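Batch manifest line 220
LIGAND: 5-O-phosphono-beta-D-ribofuranosylamine
JOB: complex structure
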Amino acid sequence: MSLPATKVPVGVLVSGSGTNLQALLDACADPDFPARVAVVLSNRPGALALERARAAGVPTEVHLQREHPDRATYDRALVASLEAHGVEWVCLAGYMRLVTPAFLRAFPNRVLNIHPALLPAFPGLHAQEQAHAHGVRIAGATVHLVDEGTDTGPIVVQGAVPVLPDDTLPDLTARILRMEHRLYPLALRWAAEGRVRVEGRHVRLDLPPGSSPALLDPEP
Ligand code: GRF
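JOB STATUS: finished
ARTIFACT:
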């Protein structure tokens, strides 16, 4: 497999604190990492993620829904901005909106999302809380390709973490988040290296030796 000579431009959509964005920015800072964050878009002006982007010298834009008549027009503005920055892959990183079908058509099978649960368990909001309340023994996180459903797209990589008997919800949330920060750079690396191929419900990964699409914490 030939690796790209230049870094693949990526757009990241955020709404909140941006710790996953930070993990991506940190990975991209490595000269050998095959992607770079070309632009960060937020629907919330006060998102801490925007400060993280600025600190890394990455252009940012805030797009407010109230400045657009509907979701389709809003997403068209996002697509225009991403295209203006030459973006080839999009990462949703704590982006608290659903993207429209037209958005997905602009980046077919090239939109990644990270979800703080072992999908298909606990899709939607408050996944860690759902897992904690349910009493599962193993929790985790998933990076998947985005389709028109909520957290339903083909799975790229998953990481499992234990749920310990005395875990509070913040304990579990923090353990899952640490796993998220391992998973997202890995998935983006594979995406940028052209290793991610979709076959129906499945992502076929052409991985280098020693890489696994199933991570465990703690490592055995
Ligand atoms: C993460 O738990 C992510 O999985 C979920 O939203 C949270 C965002 O956190 N989609 P951050 O903004 O990356 O810190």
